[in-house]
Amino acid sequence: MSLPNTNDSQLLPLHDPIPSGEIGDVFSTTTTTTTTPSGPAANANGTYQTVKETLQSKETDTQSAFSAIKDHPVTQSVSNGPVAQNIKAETAKTQSELGNLSASRTTPSQPAATGQSLTHYHSMFYTLLSWKNPRATGLAFISTVAFIFAARYLNVVPYFFKFLCYSLGLTASAEIAGHVIFSTGFTSQIRPKKYYTIPRETLDRMLDDLHELINFFVMEFQRILFAENISHTIACFLASLISYGLIKIVPFWGLSLIATCVLYMAPLIYVNNKEIIDSQIQYATNTLNRQATQVKEVAGQHTARATETVKQYAGDYTSKAQEYIGSTRSHSNSPVVSSAPSVQSNYTSSDFPIAPKKEPILSKEPNASKPSATYPDTPITASIY
Q1: CA 327, CA 344: separation in Å to the nearest integer?
Q2: DSSP secondary structure letter of residue 350
Q3: Each residue of 141-152: pLDDT tens digit?
Q4: Dihedral angle, C-alpha 255, 261, 263, 267, nearest 10 °
Q5: 361 membership: H or E segment, kind and range
Q6: Global pTM value
Q7: Which of 130, 228, 232, 297 can bridge 223 by disulfide, Cβ–Cβ 3.0-4.6 Å?
Q8: What is the signed CA dihedral for 306, 307, 310, 311, rounded to 10 degrees?
């Protein structure tokens, strides 16, 4: 029995020939499919890839939305309008004034009374408080007032620990969740390649600035204490006197706020009304000088009169003393003349007894109870006249 002659085309189904390039793709697809892991690891990798692609698509959509908003005509009109231009101009001026304030930190050419060089903070604080850069000074004033109110009404220390607690808890939770779900932590993915460190040059510069700032306050206190500028010493005396009275009724933060306002506003008021204030100060100075001159003249006149009076009294007393001394000397040098009347006596020396010239002779008799003295037989007579 013989089989019929048939062609291979009749036995096999008809197919289009496969290109050589597609054959490679088929084999590669088959190879990839065979090497893909299966089980929970494959599901985790697939979920991770899905989340990553979703995040990338969301980022792309967000960027496109921002671009659309930025290129919108309304946004362009606002960003390029007069308000935006004024804001940009003021920002540029503020940055320029802040740069000028930072550049003013130079050592003054005029030294202190002791010959020591002043610190560069003397120039900076003078420039700051003199309102030469009004935007920078105003910004410093607002910052100081805001800091005082923040220290008064905000509990900074509890907020700091609260922020630290939330930050550490968030980073730890993200790292643990990443390891559990995706076998890699989220926090470790955003870890920087190199941790930030403070350069030695920056630290040295900060320490130098701190050293200069401390010396500024120490030197200024000594200059005020030892009256290098008497007007500054008087002003600080009045300020301390007023502060001593206010601290009894005003809290410390209120006193700090008052001192800050006076420290910043007083120079501003003087700068805006310099001519009037200078004229009034000059008038007060001239008045005080005239009064001082009159007081000196009156004091000089009274002093001259008192001096003349003292000289006159001194001359009178001197002349009287000289007269008294001269009269005393003249009485001591002149002979003494008795003013009693002379009495002539009618008696002679023979009328009186002769005084004994020998010692009396004591009796040597043993039975004598008392010693007896013998005198010559010359009678003793006495006459009373």
Answers
A1: 35
A2: G
A3: 999 999 999 989
A4: -160
A5: strand 361-362
A6: 0.56
A7: 228
A8: -150
